[in-house]
Amino acid sequence: MPTKQIIGCMVAALLSIGTGVMAATVEVTPGVGSRMLLQIWSMRELKVRSVILQKYDYSCGSAAVATLLTYHYDHPLTEETAFRTMFDHGNQDKIQKEGFSFLDMKRFLEARGYPADGFQVSLDDLSKAGIPAIVLMVDNGYHHFVVVKGMRGNTVLIGDPAVGLRVVPREQFEASWPSRVVFVIHDFPTRGEFNTARDWSVRPTSPLGRPLSPDTLNNAVLFRPGGRDF
Hints:
The structure is a single chain. This protein is an alpha+beta fold. The chain folds into 2 domains: 1-41, no CATH class; 49-200, Cysteine proteinases (Cathepsin B, Chain A, Alpha-Beta Complex). 36% of the residues lie in helices and 24% in strands. It contains 10 helices and 8 strands. The chain has helices at residues 3-16, 43-48, 60-72, 79-88, 92-98, 102-110, 123-129, 170-175, 197-200, 214-219, and strands at 24-31, 34-40, 116-120, 133-139, 142-152, 155-160, 164-169, 181-185. The strands form 3 sheets. Strands 4-5-6-7 form a 4-stranded antiparallel β-sheet. The protein has a two-stranded antiparallel sheet with strand order 1-2. It is globular. Residues 16-21 and 226-230 have low confidence and may be disordered.
């Protein structure tokens, strides 16, 4: 099958999933008697497949708790369940003005058998412990709960209930985390998943060595005829 046709098939496969968040398996026939099954993921799907997004401006706390249990402790939980339970058992006026607190989360988790507390530690301590944590980030005066999912080198992987997975430079993360408080599940038989390849796949690293120079990339275009089109 000519290269252009293969490219065309791949483009069609990508377009077939549109802008939705669901993955799709697309069959491509490159030639007579052969076929390929392509698993296609949109970038949006990759960013949210292990993060539960918040539905309200002040519900990042309930979404963070749902993310922690669902994707790190294999305890599926919807944001609606976490939100409704914490709201019903909390200070509703305060929650509507300020959002949930670590105390709301602690009560919710411990009622389900998950001992949870806040600890003031360094990012290195959290990395050595190898467990996921909920932290309160502050950006331009805006307070927001996120889940720390992993660390590699000088980068921190977070599950942000507002946008999904984010890879943040360590310096930037620490500047937005003045309290140095991590909220974690502890003394539990199962250790929460941390630094998983699934989560880091939102930003894959190259296994192929050094990247090509900009000049080389500029000369490599999709539809320029080559010496042999196959």
